[in-house]
Design a protein that fits this description.
By secondary structure, the chain is α/β, with parallel strands linked by helices. The protein folds into 2 domains: 9-144 and 190-332, Rossmann fold (3-Layer(aba) Sandwich); 149-186, no CATH class. The protein is 37% helix and 19% strand. The chain has helices at residues 18-29, 58-68, 85-93, 104-118, 123-134, 167-173, 197-202, 218-223, 227-233, 254-260, 267-274, 296-301, 316-332, and strands spanning 9-15, 37-43, 49-51, 54-56, 139-142, 149-156, 161-166, 182-186, 206-209, 238-241, 244-245, 248-249, 285-289, 305-309. The strands form 4 sheets. The protein has a 7-stranded parallel beta sheet with strand order 5-2-1-9-10-13-14, with helices on both faces. The protein is globular, with a radius of gyration of 19 Å. The two termini are 18 Å apart. The protein binds guanosine-5'-diphosphate (GDP) and calcium ion (CA). The site of calcium ion has 7 residues, from helix 2.
């Protein structure tokens, strides 16, 4: 069948920063996917933080820059050809936080966002306006327009007592090395899903959980009232891709996050943490890396259909191939 005559597939994904952005870039920019896809991305905003008076949304920006061609290939976050003069000057003044990587070009994005929010626009509206420039090729929406920030309860090394610190401080300053007792979503009590979040899940042909952090990226989005229920109830199949390969995160410190919620760092444990939709959970299908193929029986016994394929997002086409497999696998049962 000629792919150009097939209708566009409506895909909705939940996503954090780097893992989510790289997967969605493969999904939308590789010819190997072989399907026309209309993609909505619901982004984690639990990482958002005020820095030097600026509203910074790290995952939204990583998605926007990666899909819009402006991301630093080397770092995986922030802008290509970036300078850090402003950050250095702030450091000389001795103002905190000195550990947050604020690039000069990046600051322009935060200035536009901050002034627009202060003028009364919602984060959804501001994101849409920023995307006018970046043309990410997807509908990029925040999980919520309400402030809902992830904080981490730790034994604070400087205060000699248990304290909650912002997720970014835990992740960047302490490199997740302080054992986390608990993650708290500050503002969750009054947070609502942003416009389009629930509808895009309920009306999708396919929902994908990309290889994003299951706790502080996907987990944070799932906490927003109505989102997990939408995944349980959507008529669309739900397929996830494991961010854990050979019992370790491919990048970052997801193991420290999983440990804090009592989940083992393995592809099988993460699948069972999400749970099978036939048993009231969130996923129908799960992709694991070839190296973890021995876990297939355990995952299938939990009611989740599973296949093992290469899961390293080495380039856009390798990722596109992974996206194609995810789509074909999830639609094969329909
Ligand atoms: P963050 O917000 O920038 O931390 O990004 P995400 O939450 O979207 O993604 C982080 C996750 O991506 C980590 O847990 C990594 O293990 C996973 N990841 C990064 N690169 C790859 C890859 O090439 N393959 C797979 N399977 N997972 C990856
Ligand atoms: Ca993130």
């Amino acid at each position: 069948m000629n792919t150009s005559t097939r209708p566009q597939l409506q895909i909705t994904t939940l996503a954090g920063g780097i893992g989510g952005a790289r997967f969605i870039r493969g999904l939308t920019q590789s010819d190997l996917v072989g399907r026309e896809c209309d993609v909505t991305v619901i982004a984690n905003t639990g990482d958002d933080i005020w820095v030097h008076g600026l509203r910074v949304c790290p995952d939204l920006d990583t998605l926007m820059y990666t899909l819009g061609g402006g991301i630093s290939a080397e770092r995986g976050w922030g802008r290509e050809d970036e300078t850090f003069t402003t950050k250095a000057e702030l450091g000389i003044y001795g103002v905190e936080p000195t550990w947050f990587g604020l690039g000069d070009k990046d600051i322009a994005t935060h200035l536009v966002r901050t002034t627009s929010l202060q003028a009364g626009y919602t984060l959804s509206q501001v994101t849409e306006a920023l995307c006018d420039r970046w043309q990410p090729g997807v509908h990029l929406i925040p999980m919520s327009d309400d402030r809902c920030e992830t904080h981490v309860v730790v034994d604070h090394p400087e205060k000699d007592s248990r304290a909650a610190i912002h997720f970014q401080e835990w992740w960047i300053k302490y490199h997740a090395s302080l054992p986390a007792h608990e993650f708290i979503s500050v503002g969750l009590d009054s947070a609502k899903p942003a416009p389009g979040v629930i509808d895009s899940i309920m009306n999708a042909d396919l929902v994908i959980l990309p290889p994003s952090n299951p706790v502080v990226s996907i987990g944070t989005i799932l906490n927003i009232p109505g989102v997990a229920d939408a995944l349980r109830n959507t008529p669309a199949p739900v397929v996830g891709i494991s961010p854990i390969v050979s019992n370790a995160p491919v990048r970052g410190m997801a193991d420290a996050c999983l440990k804090a919620i009592g989940v083992e760092t393995s592809a099988a444990a993460v699948a069972q943490h999400y749970g099978a939709r036939i048993n009231g959970g969130l996923i129908d299908y799960w992709l694991i890396d070839e190296s973890d193929s021995a876990a297939i029986p355990e995952i299938e016994a939990a009611g989740i259909q599973c296949i093992a394929v290469p899961l390293m997002m080495t380039d856009i086409d390798a990722t596109g191939d992974m996206a194609r497999v995810a789509i074909d696998f999830a639609l094969s049962g329909n």
